[in-house]
Amino acid sequence: MADAHPEDDGVVSETQTGDAPARSLAEKVDLLFQTVRPAKGEYSYEHVASAIKAAGGPTISAAYLWMLRNGKRDNPTLRHLEALASFFGVPPSYFFDDALATQVEEQLRLVATLRDVGVRRVALRASGLSSESLATIAEMIERVRKLEGLPDEPEEGHAAD
C-alpha cells in the first residue's frame, strides 16, 4: 500500500484477521459494485462519488473510485472507506477484517441471488413450511440441478436481474 493520492489526508492499511482468505482492497470494492446495485446494471463511479458528496462525505472523484476498484490505488483515507461503506451499506470494518468481509460477502451474494424473480418466488412460497418439507424441497432442487448439469453451488454472479 505504497501509493499516495492527492485526495488522501491519511493512510489506512488493510489487515487480515481470522482464517478467512485475504482479499485485496480492489477485490472488496469490486464485489460491492457487482452485488450492491440498482435494478439494472451497476452504479456508475460518478453516481457513487456524487452520492457520497451529497451525504456530506469526503470529496472523492469517479476516477479515484475506478482506481480503487481496479487496484491502481490502494491506500484511501479512513474517511473514504467509511463513505464507501456507508454508500454500499456495509460496516467500515469490511475493508479491514477479512473474516467479517467473508460474512458480509455471503450476505451480499444472497441478496444478489434473491434479485432473481424466480428464486424469490420459490423462497416466498416456501415460507412457513416445516423443516422436513424444506429439506425435501432442497433435495429436489439439488436433483434438478444435477439433471440440468449445474454445479452443486450456483456460480457467483448468475442471478438474473
Automatic annotation (TrEMBL):
InterPro entries: Cro/C1-type_HTH, Lambda_DNA-bd_dom_sf. It comes from the Bacteria. Residues 1-22 are annotated as: Disordered. Signal peptide: none annotated. Residues 60-95 form the HTH cro/C1-type domain. This is Helix-turn-helix domain-containing protein. The lineage of its organism: Bacteria, Bacillati, Actinomycetota, Actinomycetes, Kineosporiales.
